[in-house]
Design goal:
Blueprint (H helix, E strand, L loop, with lengths): L4 E5 L3 H11 L4 E5 L11 E4 L2 E4 L5 E2 L3 H9 L16 E4 L2 E4 L4 E2 L2 E2 L2 H7 L4 H8 L15 H9 L1 H16 L8 H4 L1 H10 L2 H12 L13 E2 L6 H10 L4 E3 L18 E4 L3 H7 L4 H8 L3 E12 L11 E3 L8 E6 H4 L8 E8 L12 H16 L7 E12 L5 H15 L3 E3 L2 H4 L3 H17 L1
Parallel strand pairs: 1-2, 1-12, 2-11, 6-14, 12-18
Antiparallel strand pairs: 3-4, 5-10, 6-7, 8-9, 13-16, 13-17, 14-15, 15-16
Length: about 450
């Protein structure tokens, strides 16, 4: 008797996670990847003489999906946590300000620490404090993050804390970023307490540190020496006896070998590509085609420490949109991760690009390096040229969760279930953009198939 067959379209971490789950359950698996390599946005490539992450350099420790996969792949014992003494600085008004103690997802739960940071004006702190006494908000069913935070906390805190944290994570404009889909913790806090500050303080008290918090009791992130792409390498190794096909773009289900015999079809490609693959279901494809994307670019530089004007004593710097910089974030990789540390040089990642700001995409690689280094020099000061540089371009990298996103995704899935119940949509356009969310999306779809 032949084994059940799964066809997986897309060889990023979501698709490979689904394939891994089905393969180890005894299924026959074929994976089709359009590009010449596995991993999607997870990639490691050289900077000088060492491998450095060219996509995400970490994943959240507070949800289990990334850690569980690493356990299954035999990598959990190698995971490490950031060592930077200060989580991050925020650059506003030409100055660096420490991220205030008690900040959780940009929400300041310690107003005294916010006032001491001078990140916002005294009037801005007073305006944020009103959140504790304002009546419950009357909002749309799915407001934007910006709309609800401006209503509760005021513009200063929203622009200088919420935007550089939540906006940077999603490469988004927070005024068109769905609260429910992109920041469910904020939505839950508001629903529970009627106040963002009160609600996030309660969550912080019961769960410890969350993303953006300075609470050191538990790790926030995990990294992997040698690069996060080692997870991809291990997944591919575990699937060594499966049918793995690189350079195989799929633009319609009829292109798939053995599609008539398949018991499951996992679609793990960007939404705009999924819309083409699933064009036979026009209503679902139309909904998927509505999902917009942001382009981002990264430049990693290795600089001589002797030429730096300041000690790199944090994980990096966040640049709010109102700061006007090309750079959205500056990650001090060699301070954040001990496996990147060297006594004579610093490894720094410079990020650019978010929805509505494509200046980086109009620059050549050399122009981009020059522009970002000029901004970095104006902030931390250095007088020596880089030892090494690397440019990574990520077009259409970040799906934008605009208000109503969750409802659109649910409707598309319902339409597809009616069209062909074998089809599953997985990955960052639907269930969250971080690595754990992508892993969970792929494995959950596979387990649902196994459950049937």
């Amino acid at each position: 008797m032949s084994r059940p067959l799964a066809l997986v379209i897309g060889g990023g971490i979501a698709g490979l996670s689904a394939a891994f789950e089905l393969y180890r359950a005894g299924w026959e698996v074929s994976v089709f990847e359009a590009s010449s390599r596995w991993g999607g946005k997870v990639r490691t490539s050289p900077v000088g003489d060492r491998p450095v992450d060219a996509g995400p350099d970490a994943f959240l420790a507070r949800v289990d999906h990334g850690l569980d996969l690493c356990r299954d792949l035999g990598l959990a014992g190698e995971l490490t946590t950031p060592v930077a003494p200060v989580p991050a600085y925020v650059h506003v008004g030409g100055r660096l300000h420490e991220l205030p103690s008690g900040t959780v997802l940009g929400v300041p739960t310690d107003l005294d620490a916010l006032r001491a940071s001078a990140l916002v004006s005294p009037a801005g702190v007073d305006r944020a404090a009103r959140d504790l006494t304002l009546p419950p908000s009357t909002v749309d069913p799915d407001p934007s993050v910006g709309a609800i935070c401006r209503q509760r906390l005021g513009d200063e805190v929203t622009d200088r804390l919420i935007d550089p944290l939540l906006g940077a994570i999603n490469a988004s404009d927070i005024d068109r970023l769905s609260l429910a889909a992109a920041a469910p913790q904020l939505a839950a806090a508001l629903a529970a307490e009627g106040s963002l500050i009160g609600g996030m303080a309660a969550i912080r008290a019961t769960t410890g540190a969350a993303l953006g918090s300075r609470d050191p009791d538990q790790p926030v992130f995990y990294g992997l020496p040698g690069g996060i792409a080692r997870i991809i390498d291990r997944l591919v190794a575990e699937l060594a006896d499966a049918d793995l096909r690189l350079g195989q773009p799929i633009t319609g289900l009829d292109q798939l070998d053995r599609v008539d015999r398949a018991d499951a079809i996992v679609v793990a490609v960007p939404a705009f590509a999924a819309a083409k693959v699933l064009g036979g279901c026009q209503d679902a494809a139309g909904l998927l085609a509505e999902i917009e994307y942001a382009d981002v670019s990264q430049v990693v530089v290795e600089l001589p420490i002797a030429g730096l004007d300041r000690v790199l004593d944090a994980s990096g710097i966040l640049f709010p949109r109102v700061d006007g910089r090309l750079m959205t974030a500056c990650t001090w990789l060699s301070t954040k991760w001990d496996y990147y540390a060297r006594p004579d040089s610093a490894l720094i990642r410079l990020s650019a690009g978010r929805f509505g700001d494509d200046r980086h995409a109009r620059l050549s690689d050399d122009e981009l390096v020059d522009a970002l280094l000029a901004e970095l020099r104006s902030v931390i000061g250095f007088d020596r040229p880089p030892i090494a540089t690397r440019v990574a371009r990520w077009p259409q990298a970040f799906p934008q969760y605009t208000p109503g996103h969750a409802e659109r995704v649910e409707r598309a899935r319902q339409l597809l279930d009616d069209y062909d119940p074998r089809v599953s949509l997985v990955g960052s356009p639907y269930d969250g953009i971080g690595l754990p969310a992508c892993i969970a999306s792929g494995r959950a779809a596979a387990r649902a198939v196994l459950g049937r």
